[in-house]
Each structure stands twice: as C-alpha cells, then as structure tokens.
Amino acid sequence: MLVVKLDHQAKRSWLNSIAGGVRSETAPILDECGQKLTELAAVYFTRLSRGGTGYSGRHWAKPRPSTVRRRKALAARGLLRAPVELQGVLTGELQASLGYEVGGTRLKLRYAAEHARWFNIHRRLIPSRLPTEWRTACDAIVTRRLISLVTKTPQ
User: Fold this and answer.
1) Is the Cβ–Cβ distance between 87 and 51 less than 8 Å?
2) How far is Cα 75 from Cα 79, in angstroms, rounded to an integer?
3) 22, 63, 115, 152: which sits with the fewest CB atoms below 10 Å from its CB?
4) 3-22: per-residue pLDDT in tens?
5) What global pTM score does this model have?
6) Start-to-end C-alpha separation, the chain
7) What's the per-residue H, E or C state across 56-87?
8) Stretch 111-119: mean pLDDT
9) What radius of gyration do the chain's Cα atoms show?
10) Helix-helix angle 132-152:9-49, to 10 degrees
11) Would you kindly state where each structural domain of the chain is located, as residue ranges?
C-alpha cells in the first residue's frame, strides 16, 4: 500500500485549482473530441461505402439487385449524388446527418437522419466498440489539454 500525505497548504491549493480547471475544461475537451470522432467516423463511412473493411474485419453487405436497379434509374435521371456502386449513398443525407452531442461528461456520436436506425441494422454505421485509432486520437486531445492546464496554473 502506498500512502501519500500532502501537508503543504500551497500544494493542496494548487491541486484544488487544477481540479477546478479540469471541471471547466470538460465541455471544451469533449467538444474537441467530438469534432475528431466525427471526422474519423466520416472516413470510416467512406471506406465501408467503397467496399473497404471495417475495424472488426467486417464488410457492409452488397446492395440487393433491386437496390442496384433503383440506383441506376436514379442515376439516369440525374438524381443520384454518388456512383451507383457506392453503398449507403443515395442523396448524401445520411452522411450529412453525422454529428455529436455533448452533455455533462458524455459525448454521443450519431447519425441523425431518420433512416440511420434502419441502415445501422443492416450495415453498422459506427463501430460498437471504440476503435484504438479513435481512442488514441481522443487520448491525445485530453493529454494535450490537461498538460496545457497544468502548465498554466502557477504552483
């Protein structure tokens, strides 16, 4: 067991000021992490929509023949925003609805489009577990912000 006793009043005050700084920095840190995760999720969507592999090694299911026919008909009328072979991209509404919400000490990354829930059943939009690459990016943001906070707070 390790017991550390901090008797020096000035050091205790300094630690308390850091704790207050951490509380005030929580929302900005989560906001910056949300921006980064949104960027990474957009790249993830693009990779999977082009037939790439997700973090778990899974691929999105190929579109059914009826979907391909419908997409070709939309493309012929100029209503398709993406090449016919891309999966999950008809109008771009789904990708455009990607965003995040910060509430208290939580960050929620989500697609807000009405059809996102249905789409997610068949083709996972966001990994169910935070990928290492995403966690590393958020850890770097948190570390940078906390180091900045500690170095600004006089001892």
Assistant:
1) yes
2) 6
3) 152
4) 444 455 655 565 666 667 67
5) 0.74
6) 28
7) CCCCCCCCCHHHHHHHHHHHHCCCCCCCCCCC
8) 87
9) 22
10) 150
11) 30-52+60-152
